Amino acid sequence: MDHDWLNVLLLLNTLLYCGHSQDKIKPVVTLKPNSPILIGETVTIRCDIQGGGDTDWEYNFYKNGQSVYSDTNPEYRISPVCTSHTGSYTCMGVKGNKESITSDAVQLTVSYQSKAVLSISPQWMNPGDSVTLNCEVKESSTGWRFSWYKTVPYRAGLPSLLDKSYSVEPLSGYGTTEESYTLSPAGPTDTGGYVCRAGRGDPVYYTDYSEPQFLWSGDKLKPVVTLKPNSPIFRGETVTIRCVIEGGDSEWEYDFIKNDQSVYSDTKPEYRISPVYTSHTGSYTCMGVKRNKESITSDAVQLTVFDLPRASVKIVSPQEPLYTGDRVTLQCNIPEYTDWTYVWYRDHQYLPSQTSKTITVSLPINAGQYQCQGKRTDQPQSSYMSPNHPISVTALPTASVSVSPHGLLYSGETVTLQCDISDYTDWTYWWYRKDQLQSPGSPSKTITTLSDQVSQYQCQGRRTDRPQSSQRSVYLHISVTANQPKATLSSDQKDILTGDNVTLTCTVESSGWRFYWYRHRQDSEPVATTSGSSYTLSQVSVSDGGQYRCRAGRGDPVYYTQYSEPVHIQVTVPGSSTSVLVGVVVGPVVAVVLLTIFLVLLCRGCCGKRIFQPIHPQSTNQDPQQDQGSTQVQSPDAGYTGNSNIYHLIHHPDNNDNDSAGVSAADGSGDVKYDKIQLKKLDKKKREKPDDPNKNKVYSEMKTVKTTASSGPVDVTYSEIDLKTMNQHPCPSQNQFILQ
Q1: Measured between alpha carbons, how far is residue 240 from residues 225, 230, 278 in Å?
Q2: Cβ-contact 487, 462 below 8 angstroms
Q3: What residue ranges define each of the domains in the chain, with the CATH number in brackets?
Q4: Phi-psi group of 344: left, alpha or beta (phi > 0 → left; psi -120 to 50 → alpha; rest → beta)
Q5: pLDDT tens digits for 270-313?
């Protein structure tokens, strides 16, 4: 709420201020005399407040925004004035708590002291003529009064020229406001020298005296000056100024004067200017001199030299930028006069075959700097040469070809070629193979081909708008290797425990592949597909074990590499290294156990019926409950020759000969008997048959293979038993078999 009252107060204050400012009076500042003002003069700056009511104003004067003078008098008087007083002056009035607004500015310019210039006409008089003296102050200022003087020999005490070459006597009193003074009628006593000067202000400021001018009397001749040809005269032409003195003999020396300055003297009455330029423009007079006699000055003739018309080259079509293959129409424009014949130049070389206003040139062969000029029989007979107009060729957009996949290509792959043009749009694409057009005007920037088509490819863009084509791309060479690549698979882990992360890496030469990962069989569906070359098995378990392969593919349709060689991943439960060792070593032992089985079978034939449980190698991944009926094995190394024993669980059924009895024994429902087997190293060199048939032995040749269970690869040892000569002998004890 407080802010609302503050806003209202601000608004009222603004309205009061605006209403008050509309009542303010605007002063007017004036200079006397007007600018330009000469050094040493007196200048008065006045501030007038019109309609200001009473006169109790105080006046403030400002120069370039800075206060320089204040007074109750409305005038600011500067005497003598200097160049430092130059500036922009304003004023304003103050009366009590009331003030005017600031006036508009007036410019005070202070110049150096000026000099009057006197002219006399005519300078040669005949008795009774009127002679006019004219005095002029070069600076364009006003308010001058002119004083006229006749020169006399220098005498001290008389006003004199600065160089004291002459003293002067006034022809008038205080002077006249007119710039001219007339001697009429003039007589012989009026001959002599004259000067003038000007003054103004209070106190009076005077210019310097003019240079003396002389008035002569006598019967002088007056020449006549003429121009040939008559104006208009154009730059580059030839003009002749002729001075004719009628009634005189031929011994004159002619003086030609331009703007009161002598420019040429000769005994010939002609002044020839060739070529003529605009700088020769001026007022020309002449006079003749012959020994101690001279003519009066002729009346003036005005020579005006006109500039030549200017030619210019412009492109009519097409609009820039210009491209290779364009046909360009150029035009020579000369805005003044008609009936021109046109001359063309390229790189400052004349083109004789081109004489028309418009010409057509082909790019890029005719690129260069073009100029033109007009010629005619009448005046002006030529134009200026046009400025250089460059006709330059802008390079066509560049096409480039890329291939996907890139790098090494393989026989049978499908590759995609892409044509890229960085500038402009709306291209159609033209494809070339070994410089032979393959695909004209395709709107697609890609084409597909077999990599077996080893060749060089190019593309080019074309369009309806300019530029209508691109440059052809550089050749893209496609080369192919005939060998199908083979993937290489590797693992970052060797001894793998459950819970580990295993990263498989599939390596293929070249790039752009997707990778396919297989487990167990390579003809199965891939277990994973990745864009990268690695595949990670996270926190593996025993079930993740197996054989892994990979291959890679790319393109559409997909081109595949050969499968990699398999990599075997075996996962071990932490802490089961002893069981694994037993599983590895138990193979050779099983052969001995199988031999024991064979002996048991023989014993059943001669000693009564016995049922045995086949021996299986102890699995490292078996459930503990499944291990309760298993053979307990203490496995020595393969070359062991000591007396360690292997015990094999044998079941003895009471009345029947089937496997169910063995199962009950495994469950603990039957009697359990252990057979002690003593291992001895097999020496093939000692396999000779003994003389005693009772001493024949059975030998077992062991072979080890790998198979795959549901939980992964398991080493299983099979025994191949080669039966030799077998003699009946008394059965050993039912409870113990000893293998020698």
Answers
A1: 10, 10, 15
A2: no
A3: 2-111 (2.60.40.10), 116-217 (2.60.40.10), 224-306 (2.60.40.10), 312-394 (2.60.40.10), 399-481 (2.60.40.10), 488-572 (2.60.40.10), 577-722 (no CATH)
A4: beta
A5: 999 999 998 999 999 999 888 767 788 899 999 999 888 999 99
